[in-house]
Specification:
The structure is a single chain. With 495 residues, the chain is of the alpha+beta class. It is built from 19 helices and nine strands. The chain has four domains: 86 residues, no CATH class; 44 residues; 188 residues, no CATH class; 65 residues. The protein is 57% helix and 9% strand.
Length: 495
């Protein structure tokens, strides 16, 4: 960790001289002391360029952070974001010869047995690089190959990240509610999963099937004979990567539709299926007219359980309807806010954040100010970070940032509304509740049946107790059936 700090200080990328005039007096003095240790590289380039170079030196974990920062031009400024954008897929590649040798070693056959052509690298990221190739059957494909020795680098990064998290908890008590160690553990687990490309192949196959349901987003097909732990082969993604400036200048491109498809595609994955692409930065998104979005790089798949999906949908729906009392109630039901806090006061605080958003386009809303307000509110009500939601929150921030770059006037709430409304109508309608109760009833019957079978093989002394348990289960089933009938009747009357 100290080595990472030293790298940032040497590059004047920690508290760069360009922002010195905006810092409080004491911090400005501290920044001046740090600049005494700056190296020759501190005099070259803009702050974003220097930070990108430092992150590149520090390795995969720092590069992932830089990729996230580069999506938020609305917070950090367009020039800063563009300077960091090279971290997405324009890092220094390793040799094609080494890549070809790795492919042959991983697949256990010669290159010519699968590929008719194998070209040099077309993109190089923190963990791997991609090559364009052609299969013997003529299909164009992308072959992803892990960097040599990357496993050792990630292991070292993981140790540093976990140490940093422990130090933050020890030295900065206010930060403990953000669960630094849980957050660090989540990031480390993500990085380690990305080191087995067979998991990514499975994720691409699963999410590809999910994406076809709505068509908001697309995924290239997996070429399974070209998959191994360190190699992944996918059909070539159509379109241009968003990391290229020319991507948004293609004739006939519907930028508004493109931004809407990105937002809706992510939300449909998360809400409807509980599995979503969790690394949707520009380097992983290909676009083509009029509004087709194709995602690549499925190394990180986020997952939500049924309860988390319901909480997410109800929170979004509450904000869309400006029902801040319900949004607050859901936060308490989910345990996101401690039960000893004032629910009405929390609803009032949410109103202060939400109301300024409505009636304004994205370009009129300061995301930096909004995030600052949210952070202040969550601190005031002792709201703690939920490790299971880290990927969701990170991806939502990234998706909104990318969508704003595509369409500066993108309204994330208007884009989300049809997907959230559909989920609410399907899952929380009276009919849906009847189906849920019916499923509970079927489960109760199955339990009764299993216990009945078990009674036959048990000693007589335990039979009476089992009859009592069965009676209790039967009563619960009858109550459930009665409730289902009442709900159904009410829903008919409402209609």
């Amino acid at each position: 960790m100290f080595g990472a700090g030293w790298t940032l200080i040497r590059a004047d990328a920690l508290l760069p001289r360009e922002i010195s005039g905006q810092l409080p007096g004491s911090v400005r003095l501290f920044a001046g002391v740090l600049r005494l240790f700056a190296g020759p590289q501190a005099r070259r380039g803009r702050p974003g360029e220097r930070l990108a170079t430092a992150f590149d030196t520090l390795g995969p974990a720092a590069i992932k952070l830089g990729q996230l920062l580069s999506t938020r031009a609305d917070i950090f400024g367009l020039q800063f974001a563009e300077d960091l954008s090279r971290l997405k897929d324009r890092l220094k590649p390793f040799s094609t010869t080494d890549a070809q040798a790795e492919v042959e070693r991983a697949l256990g056959c010669s290159l010519g047995e699968i590929f008719a052509e194998f070209e040099g690298p077309v993109a190089a990221a923190s963990l791997a690089q991609a090559h364009r190739a052609r299969l013997i059957d003529g299909r164009a494909v992308a072959v992803k190959v892990l960097r040599p020795g990357i496993e050792r680098r990630v292991a070292a990064d993981a140790d540093v990240l976990l140490l940093a998290a422990r130090l933050v908890e020890a030295l900065a008590p206010p930060a403990r509610r953000l669960e630094p160690r849980a957050f660090a553990a989540t990031v480390v687990r993500m990085l380690r999963l990305e080191l087995d490309l067979r998991f990514e192949a499975a994720g691409a196959d699963e999410l590809g099937a999910i994406m076809t349901v709505d068509g908001f987003m697309h995924a290239p097909k997996v070429v399974w004979p070209g998959v191994a732990r360190r190699v992944l082969t996918l059909e070539w993604a159509a379109g241009m990567p968003l990391s290229e400036d020319a991507a948004l200048e293609q004739p006939g491109l519907d930028r508004r539709g493109l931004a809407n498809n990105l937002t809706r595609g992510f939300l449909a994955q998360a809400l409807d299926h509980g599995a979503f692409h969790a690394d949707l930065h520009e380097g992983n998104l290909f676009v083509q007219p009029s509004a087709r979005v194709t995602a690549v790089d499925f190394g990180i798949v986020g997952r939500l359980g049924p309860a988390e999906r319901r909480y997410l949908a109800e929170i979004l729906w509450g904000f869309l309807r400006r029902d801040y009392r319900r949004v607050a109630a859901v936060h308490f039901e989910a345990g996101y806010v401690p039960g000893d806090q004032d629910q009405a006061a929390f609803a009032q605080a949410l109103r202060a954040v939400g109301e300024p958003l409505f009636g304004h386009t994205a370009k009129d809303v300061s995301m930096g100010r909004l995030l600052a307000q949210l952070f202040e509110i969550t601190a005031l009500f002792e709201m703690r970070l939920r490790p299971e939601l880290v990927l969701l929150q990170k991806t939502m921030v990234t998706v909104e940032g990318v969508a704003r770059r595509i369409d500066p006037g993108h309204d994330i709430w208007a884009a989300a509304e049809p997907v959230v409304r559909r989920w609410i109508t399907r899952e929380l309608s009276p009919a849906a509740r009847v189906n849920s109760l019916a499923a509970d009833a079927r489960s109760a019957l199955a339990v009764i049946a299993r216990r009945g079978e078990a009674v036959e093989s048990q000693p007589p002394a335990r039979v009476g107790q089992n009859h009592a348990n069965q009676s209790s289960a039967l009563v619960m089933f009858m109550l459930g059936a009665l409730t289902a009938t009442l709900v159904l009747a009410v829903s008919i009357l409402i209609r």
